[in-house]
Amino acid sequence: MKLRNNFLWGGATAANQYEGGYLEDGKGLTINDVEMGAEHGKKREIHDFIQADSYYPSHEGTDFYHRYKEDIALFAEMGFKSFRLSISWARIFPNGDDVTPNEAGLQFYDHVFDECLKYGIEPVVTLHHFELPLNLVKKYGAWRNRKLVELSVRYAQTIMDRYKNKVKYWMTFNEINALFISSAPWHMAGILYQENEDKVNTMLQAAHHQLVASALTIIEGKKINPDFQFGCMLLYPCTYAATCKPEDQIAARNKLLPTYYFGDVHVKGKYTNTCLSYIESLGGKIEFELGDDAILAEGVVDYVAFSYYFSGIEGVGENIEVAEGNLSSGGKNPYLDMTEWGWQIDPIGLRNSLNSLYDRYQIPLFIVENGIGAIDELTEDGTIEDNYRIDYLEKHISAMIDAVEKDQVDLLGYQVWGPIDIVSAGTGEMRKRYGFIYVDKDDLGRGTLNRSKKKSFDWYKHVIETNGESIR
Ligand code: BG6
């Protein structure tokens, strides 16, 4: 089997890390707009208001809001077949629960999609990427509250109806499983746990609300346009057993359970034994409403999208050192190198991940995030020789092609995370760059925002031109 002829090569972004224009044309405040930038290695502070004289990276992002034409032209020059972006709910419903949508916000995305379609680039839309109108946190307690199911479905219907002839590929929640495996409930659900809160039950219930919202969105979307293709989106924490000790194998399997929890509900339409045993192991419970089972059974996905950056190990031994990752961590593997941020580089892990997901779900997969966050140094003539990026991507794409050609995994496409430099979700930094296109901006927000091509720009262009043959 070969890569499909219409393989969706491209890149992926998120509104809160890229758009900027944080209060323009009627947009409301989001949970990201109150998350401060931080010094390298420090945690970002969050309040539910904007503090004077503080720096907030999302306010300007890297200014896609004003420069989308220039950026999409550069993506087109690389030959992108697809471009993943998220919609900012607060640009459409500034408070999240407004009665009528904000026309200026809707128009912005109309322009963006038109620009993509002009170049034959397929827009791939995430409805919720670590973002929520701040008002919904203050008024309802965010995803703790069932009310968000109704409000989010109304938002989704508005979007899907408006863009029904422009967008075909949708994802509901970015890395939805990170609510369980990360320590970022703010990003995932607008939640900062209260001191006496029952964290387990809050987390399980918020996840249930998102799963019902996701299924209802799919049900409503298919009514709007039966050709819509919906995916769930998982952070895939590829995990190996630390040793051949059988208990280590169980530990590695357990590490994946919270991820399969979300994949199972989305693909199989129910809480499977994996989900139920996980709930039991936590000693938690979920409150169902009448009809929830039927909603989950009907609102299943067409494809499974996932992000892949690193792998880790798990075991019962005490000497396993922790390695970092995106919103999650795993044990250190002596066979792997790591990035400057301590994420373990494992191209074969991508092939393993594709196989594990395809074995389990047997529906098309879509890699919607992969890449390396690195410090790029400008040379004297102003260029960037990002050979480390080319090396990382080349090896991962090659492993991906092995999964398709040798293992017959059905794959829709491959998108590099942050094809243009954007703000880091985890740290708020600019110095952690993923792009083929450099943006002149630093960690304190200084810079011209000018765009320039890195060495990897032409390299990726050639990969797309040859449908991956150039690196085989
Ligand atoms: C994923 C997110 O977890 O990893 C992105 O979906 C994020 O939003 C990406 O940017 C890379 O993480 P970071 O922290 O390096 O930006």
UniProtKB/TrEMBL annotation:
The lineage of its organism: Bacteria, Bacillati, Bacillota, Bacilli, Lactobacillales. Signal peptide: none annotated. InterPro entries: GH, GH_1_N_CS, Glyco_hydro_1, Glyco_hydro_1_AS. Keywords: Glycosidase, Hydrolase. This is 6-phospho-beta-glucosidase. The keyword Hydrolase applies. The active site is at E369 (nucleophile). Belongs to the glycosyl hydrolase 1 family.
